[in-house]
Amino acid sequence: MKDGGHITLTLSPGSGSTSGLVGDERGRKSLRRAWNQLPRCQRNLIILGITALCVTAVLCLSGDQLTATSHQDEDPKTAPYHLRLQNPHHHPPMPEKDQPEALTEAALPAPEDKRQPHPEALSDKFNDIVAYGDANSAENVVRLPETVAAQGPPQAVAVPPPENNKEQDIGGIDILNNVEEPIDQQQQQQLHLSERELLDQAIQSPLKLGGVSFKEHLRRIQPLLAKAQHFHGATNERQSAVVAAFKHSWAGYKKYAWGHDNLKPISQYSHEWFGLGLTIVDSLDTMYIMGLDDEFKEARDWIDHSLRFDTKRDVNLFEVTIRVLGGLLSAYHLSGDTMFLAKASELGNRLLPAFLSPSSIPYSDVNLGDLSAHAPKWSPDSSTSEVTTIQLEFRDLSRSTNISIYEQVAHKVNEKVHELEKNHGLVPIFINANTGTFRNYATISLGARGDSYYEYLLKQWVQTGRRDNDNLILDYMQAIDGVLTELMRRTPREHWVYIGELINGKDFKPKMDHLTCYLPGTLLLGHQNGMPDSHLILARDLMDTCYQTYIMNPTHLAAEISYFALTDKDEQDIYVKPNDAHNLLRPEFVESLYYFYALTGNRTYQDMGWTIFQAFETHAKVNAGYTSLGNVKNTQSTRLRDLMESFWLSETLKYFYLLFSDDRKEIDLEQWVFNSEGHPLPVYPLKT
Ligand code: DMJ
């Protein structure tokens, strides 16, 4: 330390004196005098020597010694749980044969062998796992994500900026390389606002971010903005066939329903739901991935000039979040076009009134123009899957704009639901936004109103960098435990595995919605990220059943709902009731096929998908697009229903296209996470 041009050395009490402060002071003075009497060059030499000694000492210590904590000596068996879990991101590379990818591929039998309840390839492993309860418990994560690479940004390939996007020329770094920006005055002010004040600010000024215009805010966060990703387009006949199906759908929509939510392809008319051009917004990223530049540009221009969010009309928070907010954000991340981010920000602001409930569980309905929200007209409750399937999108909006409020309010829902009592980790399908509690005796289901609660537990954990011991992943593991013990059954003769429901929260019903066929893909994604082998086995068995629900019908298309035999007195192991025989062009099973192909490389899943794609071509394709069907049980009487839902373009066709890709990592699942509507969003590095 410099003190009037001199170096002040301080001795500890007792080292220079025995008489307390006075002696200490005297010692210090005489030392200073002696030091001052030394010639300057000698003093410099001494200082240099001391510095050299210190540097040598530091260099001799290894990195581990330098960062050692008191936990280092703890017995791994008795150390706290979080210390026993290794950080997945620092897991050493495994020898080739132990790579989970190889394990998964080898462990999953070809679909021909599928109907064995315990195939040989897995039986030892299966027995080793013993009881599901133990194997799946939160205390017993079998493997950690060995294949999860160090979290880096998605490989951004620089492409020329779109002409229509001037702000694109900024050449900012990838969004995932979040750089520390100096905190400016605007940010300083924001830091001092409470959550409620931030919420009010965003709601009162939906055309602003952090109190300033979008343009100004985006200018300030330039280094955080996304770069365009590059896709090469179809590379084989199957992919080309899917692109042709997309173009056919798009042409019909453009001709008969442009600017409206959905196409009615039989009556060749439009169908309105929220008045937000759903099909256009939902299709953006599919077109970008397929390399349909002209279609992407016309959609982009419609969004820029004609998409309005200020109409006084109630919309459903969940549907608009997964389709519109998710669609805009995904289009932004893939194309790098900040127009999409500005639109997403306005929509995010206008959806925020949903969170002004007494419990922080959002209301299901929001009036985007009025900026008000309420419970559905038909019930005081929100659907559980709906309030828990908005977090990927709201978090991404926060991370993309560097405005925290969206993530804050959405994450609070995670916390509230986490605290609620569950049935073996399973949740009732209704929750009250005023009281924040589940409806008593509500059904438990992995189909309608329950499904994506489970999906988003895992996917949010993946999105946020796969943090050890996170409540999201602990809740997910507990829930899948509950699925295995409370909901999973096999049919008596053919041993088809299915997931039933608990009516009133207790009475088992052997009914499975087609919606539940998303689960095998999610389970495999989880297994790839360290979940127990029991998840893999369930994924594979359920995959077989879902495929059977397609090929058992003469159309090779699945019904909306299937029932399963409880005893061998039931005539068929799987059957469809007349009122449930419709098909809405839903994506869930194709989505699972995509995950199975993307994560294992096994091309048999492509062949299964091709059978289904051809079935859609045969039975759902009409002059003006593709239509939902009323009956999959009779090829001569499919009873065309006249609706092409936007998820046909956002999900079903996108997953077909990616399933048929020669490059199974065309979208790298370590870098991207698909929202519930099939829109890829970036995975963020673990926050430290
Ligand atoms: C889509 O909107 C989403 O996949 C949602 O999560 C469930 N329903 C449809 C598709 O079936």
UniProtKB/TrEMBL annotation:
This is alpha-1,2-Mannosidase. GO terms for cellular component: endoplasmic reticulum membrane. One of its GO terms (molecular function) is calcium ion binding. Keywords: Calcium, Disulfide bond, Endoplasmic reticulum, Glycosidase, Hydrolase, Membrane, Metal-binding, Signal-anchor, Transmembrane, Transmembrane helix. Ca(2+) binds at residue 676. InterPro entries: 6hp_glycosidase-like_sf, Glyco_hydro_47, Glycosyl_Hydrolase_47, Seven-hairpin_glycosidases. It is a single-pass type II membrane protein. One of its GO terms (biological process) is response to endoplasmic reticulum stress. It catalyses: N(4)-(alpha-D-Man-(1->2)-alpha-D-Man-(1->2)-alpha-D-Man-(1->3)-[alpha-D-Man-(1->3)-[alpha-D-Man-(1->2)-alpha-D-Man-(1->6)]-alpha-D-Man-(1->6)]-beta-D-Man-(1->4)-beta-D-GlcNAc-(1->4)-beta-D-GlcNAc)-L-asparaginyl-[protein] (N-glucan mannose isomer 8A1,2,3B1,3) + 3 H2O = N(4)-(alpha-D-Man-(1->3)-[alpha-D-Man-(1->3)-[alpha-D-Man-(1->6)]-alpha-D-Man-(1->6)]-beta-D-Man-(1->4)-beta-D-GlcNAc-(1->4)-beta-D-GlcNAc)-L-asparaginyl-[protein] (N-glucan mannose isomer 5A1,2) + 3 beta-D-mannose; N(4)-(alpha-D-Man-(1->2)-alpha-D-Man-(1->2)-alpha-D-Man-(1->3)-[alpha-D-Man-(1->2)-alpha-D-Man-(1->3)-[alpha-D-Man-(1->2)-alpha-D-Man-(1->6)]-alpha-D-Man-(1->6)]-beta-D-Man-(1->4)-beta-D-GlcNAc-(1->4)-beta-D-GlcNAc)-L-asparaginyl-[protein] (N-glucan mannose isomer 9A1,2,3B1,2,3) + 4 H2O = N(4)-(alpha-D-Man-(1->3)-[alpha-D-Man-(1->3)-[alpha-D-Man-(1->6)]-alpha-D-Man-(1->6)]-beta-D-Man-(1->4)-beta-D-GlcNAc-(1->4)-beta-D-GlcNAc)-L-asparaginyl-[protein] (N-glucan mannose isomer 5A1,2) + 4 beta-D-mannose.
